[in-house]
Design brief:
- This protein has 285 residues and is an alpha/beta fold.
- The protein folds into 3 domains: 5-80 and 137-180, 3-Layer(bba) Sandwich (FAD/NAD(P)-binding domain); 84-134, no CATH class; 209-281, no CATH class.
- It contains 7 helices and 20 strands.
- The protein has helices at residues 13-23, 52-58, 83-89, 102-111, 166-180, 244-254, 272-281, and strands at residues 5-9, 28-32, 62-64, 73-76, 78-81, 96-98, 116-117, 127-128, 132-134, 137-140, 146-147, 152-153, 160-161, 192-197, 200-205, 212-218, 221-228, 231-239, 265-266, 269-270.
- α1 links the parallel β1 (5-9) and β2 (28-32).
- α1 (13-23) runs parallel beside α5.
- The longest helix is centred in the middle third of the chain and has 15 residues, at 166-180.
Amino acid sequence: MAVRRVLIRGLEAGSAYLAYLFRNSGVEVDILTANPSDPLLDVPPFEPLFTLDYIRDVLAVRLVKEPSGSYDAVVDSCDVFGFEEVKKALSTDKPVYVVGDSWLSASLSLYRSLPVPNVDLELPVEATNDFAEVSVRYKPYVGGTHQLCGSFKDAWGGCLYTPMRALERIYAAVDVYASLMGLEAPRRNLRLQYAVGGDKLFVAMGCRPEGKASKINIGDGQVWVYGEEGAPRYVLFQGRPEHGPWVFAMYNLARTLNSAFLYDLAPWGRGGFNLGFVGHLFRKR
């Protein structure tokens, strides 16, 4: 497919990265947005993915209020409102619950070495019922040919969900780019949640814990895996931020095929995901 002009509806980290990829391929990009602001990758310790000036002045992406002319593809994302409240919370010394996003709340607390709000999330860290609340609103756009911020179907558990963490929307943006440019793409979604801060990293893949469970200790990390007869259903990882590249690489491999964890090998031995699935979940009883 020859792609020359694309409309992206909504401005957030995923759509900003998609615009970046298209512009570096010579594709014209319009971003339709009701909230032009700097797209954040996430709260600290992450940095802004791109500034608004970079998107407009360096990439020469047009921010528009109405579509103009014809487009080869329309990609729907979302506008994010109220994120300033989250950034302001970083200057306080009280745990904060971001309504509807307990994993983001955990990141905020871990970053500031505070207890995690005791809401909708069980992690092996100190939790508290004493917290303030802030809210973030997402305005999704619907009706386009591709989606970054709408309803996704999890490949393992079949549940419908909205990707809340920016990193998953960035991965979805890569899938859209690859598909439109004729490159290979996973073509399926796998729910991703994570909390990172200080010396702790937690990552969850899949809808919910179901099936047989196995816990593997590997070095200073732990992996809980759930599934039946070699079919993965859910993974929870606990470790350090330095484990991030490996964990997210395994996540992206798992989006491609269910047997991804058989490939979790390196010259220094087997990885935690390989040990969990091969050593336990392949057994029928």
